[in-house]
Predict the structure of ABC-2 type transport system ATP-binding protein.
Amino acid sequence: MTSRLSIPRIRRALPTGRRAIVAAVVAVLLAVAVGWAVRPRDPEVRTEAAMLTVRSGPDGQQPVDLDTTFYLPEDASARHKVPAVLLAHGFGGTKESVRDDAEEFAERGYAVLTWTARGFGRSGGEIHLDSPDYEVRDAQRLLDWLAARPEVRTDATGDPRVGVVGGSYGGALALLLAAQDRRVDGIVPMITWNDLARSLLPDSAGGSATAGVFKKGWAGLFFGGGGSVGSGPAGFSGNIAAQPQGAPASAGPPSPDPGAGPGSGPGHAPGAAADPSCGRFAADVCAAYLRMATSGRADQAAVDLLHRSSPAGVLDRITAPTLLVQGEADSLFPLAEADANARGLAANGIPVRVAWFTGGHDGGDGPKTDSDRVRFLTLQWLDHYVRGAGEAPGNDFTWSRIAGFDALDRGLVATGYRTTDYPGTGGQRRTEVALTGPEQRIANPPNGNPAAISSVPFAGGLSALLDGVAGDVPGQHARFESAPLAEAVDVVGAPTVSIRAASPTGEAVLFVKLYDVDPNGAATLPNGLIAPVRLTGLPERVAEARPVTVTLPAIVRRFEAGHRLRVVVATSDQAYASPAEPNVYTVAAGDAPLALPEVAGDPIPTAATIWRWVLVGLLAAIVVGLVVVVALVRRRQRHHDSSVHPEYAQVPLAVRQLRKEYADGFVAVSNVDFEVRPGQVVGLLGPNGAGKTTTLRVLMGLTQPTAGEIYVFGHRLVPGSPVLSRIGALVEGPGFLPHLSGLENLRAYWRATGRPESDAHFDQALEIAGLGDSVHRRIKTYSHGMRQRLAIAQAMLGLPELLVLDEPTDGLDPPQIAEMRRVLQRYATDGRAVLVSSHLLAEVEQTCTHAVVVNKGRIVASGPVEEIVGESPSVLIDVTDPAAARAVLDRLDGVRVLPESDGQLVVDTNGTARSDVVAELVRAGIGVDRVVPRRRLEDAFLALVGESSRGSGDR
């Protein structure tokens, strides 16, 4: 792709020295353009698709066809051998799920082999859940195939130089393969499990898997769909998120592949599962699931089967350097699973690094800034341990937290942090927070219905939305709450809390949650994560119950000062199996406070962030050069002037001989001169293209004037002038963060100003704007009119002495417009003033005390509104008898009666004195109630600007 650079023509001749400077800058710009155009291109990638027949099973002799694609860099050959990557997909996906990642690896010089795992897509066989005898042995045979490829670098005969990368299902495969085959040189398992039994049957009070609480939501998607549920948690680029991908796993036998290369074998149809309700799952896996789904608990045989597919039992055999990447938004495989893998691998003395990111099965890839960080860490790891290039990555622990929105693309932004040593989910230190609340009786509903909502499996972004609306059923949960936090707490790890419980049956299944409650009472459940526990041996009375420590899910969350922490203990959750029999438990707080783990770290940039700053720096250098040229051409140096013009010291705004001319010669404002004094509401009027918006942009420092001066309370207005803090403005529309409430947006805006919160006057600004309780709702639920009112409230923060508003009634309905009229009139008190630009002339007439009419860049009228309206040749007359009055007036010479309206007469006097007209009516015995001029501001406006009101858009 070529890059074009457009150089604007310079219309005026410049002195030789200035030409030289301009020429130098142009040369720099051309150099940048050429450099961009000739930058190194991504290398071409060759692909080979094939159905490979491999032999696995307990005896290593059972054939199965695997649908594969081999990606090769353009320059890979028998003379130029390259390292390899075995790239595994997530559960329900296929080789196509990881295509983008495969291409990127290949572009970086790796030979990449992708395949569709047995039981999925066009591959044969049954699903054995990453069994060492089946899926893992399949992968070993793929290593054999890589070793035989002439383009792949080898360490010895039959030993390819290879790294293994995969997410979720593929991540566990990477760990299990590295434990079973020493030929693996480095692995990057992502969002995967340590113990599959604990993942599907968790107990956060430390119970065994056979007593764990069945995770029916996720298990049902995996097993109940017969293996046909798609997910793509596979790569580091676009496939970490759990998204439906790939062909249905229940597809028929693979057809011959016309593009198959050497090594492809005959097709083998998928075997039939023992139970049709489990599709292509192996019979033992299907049977285990059906037993768990029916009883809600696991027997030892089912736990043993899940352990067979778990890295937990084989971590001591892994010697390959390992980068563990785990998602913070993951109700399937939470951060504790990566923590267990990290602790097990560290005992081997091999390089191990842990990275947490903001995505996961419930959060997708997370923001681009975070997926870029994961990409950088993955490539850095493989480049060193597989390619043999670059310095050792080290074992720093990195994590991230959502920081806000990207100003460039409006997407979420995550900030990454690092610390030298991995502290585990226990953190480096713990902050204790006391909880209060009485003992409470809570009901367990029959069959767990109705159930509380925490997260929705496979819902991705929808699960994230549940943070703010996670629901607990009344009567089925107990609450324990802290006092407002005196200072913010940055939680990085797994909090712990102590509870006591009593049950008539001696057993209870409970779900413990930690909410963040803001000062307005809005509660957020971080990432929808909860801690299920099954307690046994309970007494009937809670006073006799022993405290139980519950380890809550590890999270990364900043709990702000003034927020409260709420621990909820519920009896049901839609994602888990609850006891079928109804019951009533009693729950109380334990004897230990809520403990919050914290980790101190330094902010880190991702590779993309580094490049962005380099690009920003380059653009900034170009801009600086252009600014210097402009400054030399115009010989104008604007210096900060702290002096006060005595004539305007008490005047909120004085605009003097303002001119704005653009580079193409267009003059938007040629000579604008007016004042806004205390107590005034001044309307800035003019047709489209008259220069209203340009005047406001200059006033707010959004563009620089060609000539003229602006004074605010006597201070000459220049960019960065401290006097700007005395101006509140709404120019060019509002911009808010949709996931925050209106009040949270206002607080964020005010914090950005760096001024004390006590100076904001939130309550007064909100009262003037009239937002009511809607200020506590999230912005994404606001109508356009509500956003406009919030923007005006934002402009009013700090109660600035001068308020500048561009079309403040845009998007408001008539009642809201009427209220806005009262808002502006109320605001212009106590020495404050308002400048408002509007095209609604009737509103300006009713709202403003003064008006400034601009036409073709010049002021054509200014002063009090009534003076601009002036005298009228016609009047409105309210009379007691309109018909008789019309007859009387029709007899007067020169007087013309216009059509009546609502009992009023519109009379064109044509020079006849109004007093004579009224006297004539009175002599005829007709009562006259009111006589008012007929002329309106609109009439005066049209008389001043004429046909120019039909011009094009303002500039």
